[in-house]
Amino acid sequence: MSIIQTLLETKKTGKPLSASVSQSTFGELPILVITHNTCHAAVSLQGAQLLFWQPTRQATPVIWLSDKAIFKKGTPVRGGVPVCWPWFGKVNDPMHGFARIVEWQLTSVQEDDNGVDLTLSLTNTAQTSHYFSKPFSLSLAIHVGKTCQISLSCLGDFEATSALHTYFAVDNIENVIVSGLSDDYLEKTATENRPKVAGQLTIDREVDRVYADAEDIITINDKKRIIKITNYNANDVVTWNSWIDKVKTIADLDNDSYKIMLCVETGRINRPLRLSPTEKTTYGFKIDVL
After folding, report:
1. What's the pLDDT tens digit per position in 134-182?
2. What's the mean pLDDT in 218-247?
3. 204 Cβ partners below 8 Å, 6+ apart?
4. Using alpha carbons only, what angle is made at residue 116 by residues 152 and 69, rounded to the nearest 5 degrees?
5. Average of pLDDT values for 244-256?
6. Is the Cβ–Cβ distance between 239 and 263 less than 8 Å?
7. Spacing of C-alpha 91 from chain mean position
8. What is the mean pLDDT of residues 219-227?
9. 103, 111, 206, 265: which is the annotated catalytic residue?
10. Distance from the CA of 145 to the CA of which of 69, 168, 184, 193 falls in 20 to 30 A?
11. In this structure, are residues 185 and 209 in contact, taking their beta carbons and an 8 Å threshold?
């Protein structure tokens, strides 16, 4: 049984929050399990992390979760949509910020025929003061149905870098073409894989890039389906795939998992979020399957 099937099974013993949503526990983490007419999905309260999303008309998930993901307090969960905030990368400790490894509060659950809408929040507390001393308030809105939409809203008096670190499921990484990327990118691997077509990415080795000024619409075409990502108030797109050698060094990935997933991340990195203590700053994305 896959990890997603096991997650969905926990709904049977969970606490109902609405007709389609229940709260249960998986490993050490409280999770929300969603079984709606339009989709199946799950969200971890740690990190406000959408763990996977599979529209009912799709034979496989669109947002991917590793079968070896670790559900332990304070440990990032491999897959889904981790929220990297208030910094992206190794600029501070922990890597990619603390928002993805602390528990958020569930503030709203709503549903209708179009899907399920969740709102989760995080503010500065004793839990977060170990990592970050400045006052802040975050709100994450998640919609799952035939489409998926995630928006991060922030209040504070500082600049922050951030990414919604989405793992996408693909049929075969060697067939994938990512379009809508710019020709301005930071190459983070030792060997550059120059694009054959400007603004496109094909993968035949490890990929780790930050694209600046990407288009608002990005597509992932794996010859089985086309995933359309519409970004708003986000000017950076990060792409990552471990490829053959690196995947063997990552404990929470199967050795063959690089073949079936690709990170295409909506971000604010080169142009940080300039936060206000009184007016929300929001960015995010919407996913459609064409």
Report:
1. 999 999 999 999 999 999 999 999 999 999 999 999 999 999 999 999 9
2. 97
3. 174, 193
4. 65
5. 97
6. yes
7. 20
8. 98
9. 265
10. 69
11. yes
Q: Is 165 a catalytic residue?
A: yes
Distance CA 29, CA 6 (A): 14
- Selecting among 165, 174, 187, 215, the annotated active-site residue is 165
CA–CA dist 115, 117 (Å, integer): 7
Range 227-250 average pLDDT: 96
Res 228: pLDDT:
98
The residues near 67 (Cβ < 8 Å, ≥ 6 apart) are: 2, 3, 254, 257
Token reading at 12:
């049977």
Between CA 40 and CA 49 the distance in angstroms is: 15
DSSP code string of the chain? --HHHHHHHGGGGSEESSSSEEEEEETTEEEEEEE-SSEEEEEETBTTEEEEEEETT-SS-SB-B-TT----TTS--SBSB-EEBS--SSSSSSTTBSGGGSBPEEEEEEEETTEEEEEEEEE--HHHHTT--S-EEEEEEEEEESSEEEEEEEEESSEEEEEE-PEEE-S-GGG-EEES--S-EEE-SSS----SSTTEEE-SS-EEEEEES--SEEEEE-SS-EEEEEEES--EEEEEE-HHHHHTT-TTS-TTGGGSEEEEEEEEEEEEEE--SSS-EEEEEEEEE-
